[in-house]
Amino acid sequence: MPFVSFPESFEWGAATAAYQIEGAPREDGKGLSIWDVACQQPGRVLGGDTGDVACDHYHRYREDVALMAELGLQTYRFSVSWPRILPFGFGDVNEKGIDFYSRLVDELLAAGIQPCATLYHWDLPQALQDLGGWASRDTAYRFADYGTLLYERLGDRIPRWITHNEARITADLGHRVGILAPGIRDLGITARVIHHLLLSHGLAVQAYRAAGKGGEIGITHANTSFEPDDDAPETTRATELARDFHTRLYHDPVYGRGYPETVRRYHEKQGAPFPVQDGDLEVIAAETDFLGVNIYSRNRVLADSDRGVGYRYAPATLPLTDMGYEAAPHALGDFVRFVSKEYGRPRIYVTENGVCDNTPPVNGVVDDQPRLELLRGFLVGLAEAIGDGADVGGYYVWSFLDNFEWALGYSRRFGVVWTDYETQERIPKASARVYSEVIRRGGVEIP
Ligand code: FCB
After folding, report:
1. Using an 8 Å Cβ cutoff, are 383 and 6 in contact?
2. CA contacts within 13 A on the Cβ side of 440
3. Residue 1 reports pLDDT greater than 90
4. Is residue 125 reached through a cis peptide bond, with omega within 30 degrees of 0 on the bond before it?
5. Whose CA is nearest to atom 10 of ligand 1?
């Protein structure tokens, strides 16, 4: 079978997030997060599922790291639970919380796996939500202080940091659509949240430089690859609008371009402006070392003058994954090419990409063909984008193991390792074996 190689220095990893895998929400002095609280409210999470146990990773991290090593992972992206470190978001430090991540990092390093830490993957301390959450400018400063504490305590052992995971999802699904915690529906608040998340990113990058640790820091955004549905000029314009509202809104400020004019005007017209103060845009543009790219699929775009934003999505034409996303293997490579060109060829890490596929075990074997076929396709596309000049340094599959998929609870599985939630047994799926092989050979077979 034809084979495509990745650069020698390319790093292969897997990603997770604290709330989705750890469990132990009240153990060892941890404070509650907005997700602990949301999960207690009826109707917020499918089936009434909660993250109370999840993958029990808080107690099983050693076995999990051993399995990562067995699969050959070279780097592991996890997130730190802010309320485990600072139960109230600021003030008293919970040493036991720091100790957990310290032990995790030591375990990873001993196994030869490079740690990559995300500061914020959606689990805000509830105490900060009670003070206004991300709608409050103070939260941005609290976030930088929290980052500083982690850089001081763990910065010598963690070479790669990500400030935020998917500010768009926090802002949009948490504060405009309201399907994720904290479940608010208000465009004015959403605009404040967007600005404060980006401001907090810039402050946390500045704090990292001040800490002088010498590793790298960046931000990870949520993406989809936008494709015009036809060749009409209005469709091309609509596709650019979709990119403004989804992609450029979060990337442009980080690359010193401020907010896209189209989005700024829309927000002003709706009475929901971005609360930009003097100097904020300079802080947000603090130089980063890399761009984190999360991407799962594509969306085809059509013009729609009835909608304020001026565009809508065309119906899917490709088969759907168990998440309802179009199975579009070209989406990863296409988006990487786009973002590389748009922002002057930044260093990129694909910090999440993967497939929702609920194929169950049969006689102890999980033969997840849909996942492994789509993964192969994604990787072939990524190799092509690198061949075309994109500077991609690594890839993290989402996810290492099946976990708590937010408002969908445990109903959707993204892991290359199966989690049996009754017994906490882990079963590497066929896709994990294929991924191991990709890592070992430094490339992928072209299907
Ligand atoms: C991303 C999230 C991650 C997971 C995947 C499926 O948007 O960052 O936590 O839920 O989607």
Report:
1. yes
2. 10
3. no
4. no
5. 405
